[in-house]
Amino acid sequence: MEAAIIGLGRMGANMARRLMRAGVTVHVYNRTYDKALSLEKEGAKAYEKISELVDVMTVPRTVIIMLPAGDPVQEHVKTLSLLMEEGDTLIEGGNSFYKDDISHFEVLKQKGIHYLDAGISGGIWGLEKGYCTMVGGEEAVFKNAEPLFKLLAPENGYMYCGPAGAGHFVKMVHNGIEYAMMQSYAEGFNVLKSSPYAKDLDLEKVSNLWNQGSVIRSWLLELLEKAFNQDPDLESLNSVVEDSGEGRWTVQQAIDTRVPVPVIASALFERFSSQDNSIFAKRVLAALRKEFGGHIVK
Prior knowledge:
By secondary structure, the chain is α/β, with parallel strands linked by helices. The chain is 53% helix and 13% strand.
């Protein structure tokens, strides 16, 4: 079995390693060639040009792209559409907007190239634990590519979700839920940190405790326990939290279908707030309180 991975960031590189450990011949390309060469030392086959990678692969080819959503994905789908042949399969494994997948599917279908969108979750831990994978596209094409998904995922960790776009749609909602869960933990630990008992509470131990059979136990709490172990007050971190797109898309989808998602929306807006260094809105509030009530302003 062979496959190619284009894009060797934290996810792509470890996916290549996981496949190699399973005996798959893995062809790799990255814009920064050094990353590809590094994996070549581990057994992959590295290429300086995408065209070289495509030329050497056995037909029908399976190529996985692991790139940031937006222009990088668009550019590489276009490039590969000119290089790949009828019967080949392109798997888009980034966090793309599901409507982009529908467009890619239609364009590639005209050329006889199969397209699957794969929402992949697992982060830097995926190498050892496996990647939870949500796949959209034609079911027959999914069945052909299923051996690769099975190798990448933990047991029962992959699923065919439906036609083009379905994989990334399910992953989008997954990430929206992730936003809300993270925000809940952040708020709860903030209450603990600000409480009368704060000086007696070891937040690392609280994280560990709550993972021992409590109803809020989770992998996120395991990661939080690790973070508190390394930095009990998290002083080495700044308070800016970026949003990567999926939370916005989840809220927009909810608006389009008139589905209430107040918790996810609030978590998204909290991320926006963290990026506002001027805190202008809070200054407006202070000014209003001063004007209507004569409250002291610092």
